[in-house]
Records
---
Amino acid sequence: MEVCEICTEEVTKDEMLAMPCGHQFCLDCWRGFAEVTLERGPTCVATTCPQAGCNEIVTEEEISVASPHLLPSFNNYQLRSFVDMNDLTRWCPGPGCTRIAIMRGGGVADSIQVPVECTSCSTEFCLKCGEEPHSPTNCLELARWNEKCKNESETANWILANTKPCPRCSSRIEKNQGCNHMACQQCKNEFCWICLGNWADHGANTGGYYKCNKYDPSGDSTTDNSDAAKAKRELDRYLHYYKRYHAHSEAQKFAKRQLRDTEAKMVLLQESTDNSTWTDVEFLKAATEQLVECRRVLKYTYSYAYYMTDISKKMHKERFEHHQEMLERFTENLSELSEQPIADMDRTDVVNQTRVVDLFLRNILQYVEDGMEED
Ligand SMILES: [Zn+2]
Ligand SMILES: [Zn+2]
Ligand SMILES: [Zn+2]
Ligand SMILES: [Zn+2]
Ligand SMILES: [Zn+2]
Ligand SMILES: [Zn+2]
């Protein structure tokens, strides 16, 4: 006969359960202990031996003998704690998804992001930080940027109302499409939603100086060095980047809706063209998928550029802005093409533009990667 340390009853060896630390208790006491342990919820995985002062962790070994019916939920808590504690694993952020992503291999510490796609719900996310893929901005900058945007949101929202007056005739214009090329119903003025500048200065055909994506501080009274003036300059600088970040974010949402509608559109297009097959109309889906990706990357080129404050990298910044400008220009182009009525759509044109845009997308991401290696 053995004596249980908790209830001091004498029981047979079979009715005792010992921990690896040597402390043993009767099964009755263990059952009660297991109940209480599980009631603690997620922290139950850190429960220690019932013996006061003993730090041996209670594991599934004891739970499975004492209270087998509690084992599944105990295992669940173990898994959750493993994922939460471990930098190399992450829950899929997809709504209702319970998949876990696990990082393989090293060398990810200083990568910009670790993009993965969930095999169950197809959600794309960064394994390092759990946000959507965000290159060229890295995880740390993204966290800072999101924090910044949270703090400035009231100011920014006030400025970014959803309608704007036409820069020529002042009639209110609502933006309801993805592309930033606006046309006023009243006076037919064509302008850029973001800077309100003439659209002709933005076109790919003009070859004119396109500076919509670059922050130009010359508009400020830079000689004024009072704290208030400095704060205003900093806010203006932030808003320059935020406006564009926000516009691409909205356009990304628009493109995602477009993608959902595309399947329906594809059926229409297929029916309207004689002898066409499904693959003949898939170009439209490819174009829209390309748009979603470009908008996402463009969005994060602005959070990236916001943090490019190192004067010694002026050249780097100028080249970056050039890549950004090209990607932006051709994305607007493709955006416009894809919003056309099906009847007006030129397949070859859309296919070509999709390919061109993809090239500019690879270019800017490659440029940032290479730049990191040079540092
Ligand atoms: Zn006992
Ligand atoms: Zn113990
Ligand atoms: Zn998922
Ligand atoms: Zn990340
Ligand atoms: Zn107008
Ligand atoms: Zn503009």
Note: Residues 2-82 form a domain with the Herpes Virus-1 fold (CATH 3.30.40.10).
---
Amino acid sequence: MGLTCARALSDRGLSPVVYEKSRGVGGRLATRRFNEDVSFDHGGQYVTAQGDNFQTYLNEAIKSGSAAEWLPNLDKELLSTKKKIVGVTGMNDLVRPLCKELDIRFNITVTGVSRQKKGWLIQTDKSHEEEIFDKVILTVPAPQARDLIYDETPLISVLDQVSLLPCLAAMVTFSEKLTIPRDVLRNGSEVLAWCARDSSKPQRKNTYDSWVLHGTPRWSKIWLDAERDTIAEKLLENFRQTYQNPLPEIRILRGHKWRFALADKTLGKEFLALDDNTLFLGGDWCMGPRAEYAFNSGRAIAAAVI
Ligand SMILES: Cc1cc2nc3c(=O)[nH]c(=O)nc-3n(C[C@H](O)[C@H](O)[C@H](O)COP(=O)(O)OP(=O)(O)OC[C@H]3O[C@@H](n4cnc5c(N)ncnc54)[C@H](O)[C@@H]3O)c2cc1C
């Protein structure tokens, strides 16, 4: 989480600038809002904390109303002792407490980072937004980071060892509640890895029954170049077979591609940096496929910068 890093730097009196290509925060802790009644967490489903730092952050987020515990109706084998925490009213709200008074420049895609005499030049898709900085921190998936630092051959060869698995997703809303009591289904098929009733999460509008379906990494790899509508149809078809009864009327059906969803081969340490500590790279791909690892990576980079 780049925002974790920016927050820590800002709290220590520095003035980080955050470039974000989307129009909102959250990254893969994503929420798609269709209208007042329907939203989906189509990326990260919930977070758990193993370490104290992330636990403390989550406790604060719960206190401030940005997060809450999700208590889905689960099969016994999916139960765990770890609390499942989600953002309210969507997963991307989980990072809201980090944003206060940060200089976040939305809708700007960084297209390159190159060393100049006076520092690092950040090139973007908006030419008026090019600036020189003394330090640069990249917290995008490793395969995307490698394309931004084309001059840094030694770092690129390290990044090339890292990989992330894709995940194809479908968001579907039914006009009536499905008759299955469970809020999470795993049918063990080669197609669907995870099906969750999004409308069972706290403080979601549940006028309708909304589900998020995630394809398995293997299936997602095969269908990665398909149209989003095709992906959604295919995932729904597999869900239909699991449900067995006729499905109610579908109000919304959309597909989404996460080309770099879950860290697979990781870096094995919390971040990567040049020896002169002017360029840092981090994210979940450093240590593992969970938001907590991204959080820890951001914190570790901030500590190294300060
Ligand atoms: C389908 C799916 C399910 C998941 N389930 C879980 C789960 O249940 N529990 C869990 O803990 N984790 C889960 N994860 C993983 C979790 O979402 C990630 O570990 C975490 O969000 C990674 O954070 P990050 O900051 O490293 O990267 P990201 O969240 O990818 O953030 C990178 C940010 O950089 C921006 N960006 C990228 N390129 C550029 C550019 N060129 N210029 C400007 N901005 C750019 C992006 O828009 C994004 O906001 C899941 C992820 C997916 C996709």
Note: The first helix runs from residue 2 to 11.
---
Amino acid sequence: MTRPTSRLLPEVTADSAAFWSGGADGELRIHRCRNCRRLFHPPVGACFRCRSRDVAPEAVSGRAVVASFTVNHHPWFGPMYPTPYVIGLVELVEEPDVRLTTQIVDCEPEAVSIGMAVEVVFEQHEDVWIPVFRPTEGGAPR
Ligand SMILES: [Zn+2]
């Protein structure tokens, strides 16, 4: 599976800057609420569970499990995004209800399965590090 050479980039905000730049240090940074201690995503200025504004990004392991996925065959963006590619919904091992919509890379679409262990890798495009996920070496399904 060929990875895109460029990507549509997000609009980085003050709240999301740590998420989009963590890859510079090899870190997947997810917001944690310091009041209820739960992780949450996407990063915003208040915890959706307890409404506390005492929230901040912190590094997590970058390990996750594929909760769902789809294989895209349509060339929505022409040659920019070679098809087919796998759009995945992954659950962080630290807190499974924190799910990221991402791309599953470094394996053929036929090899992806629900429950597959994956780990983050980063693609740098301009000043943004896009977190994508690849199968974990020797990773066992849950
Ligand atoms: Zn909270």
Note: The pocket of zinc ion is lined by residues 33, 35-36, 38, 47, 49-50, 52 (CB under 6 Å).
